[in-house]
Amino acid sequence: MKGLFLKDCYMMSRYCRAVFFLMIMFLAVSAAEDDNLFFTIYPMMVASIIPTTLLSYDEKSGWNIYSCTLPCSRAQMVSVKYLIAAALIAVVWIIAAAIQGIRAAAGVGAAREELAWILSILLLLGLVSSAVILPVMFKYGVEKGRMAYYITIAVVCGSGVAFPQILEKLQISVNVQGNLVPLLLCAAGAIVFGISWMISVKVYEKREI
Question: What's the confidence (pLDDT) of residue 9?
Answer without folding.
Answer: 92
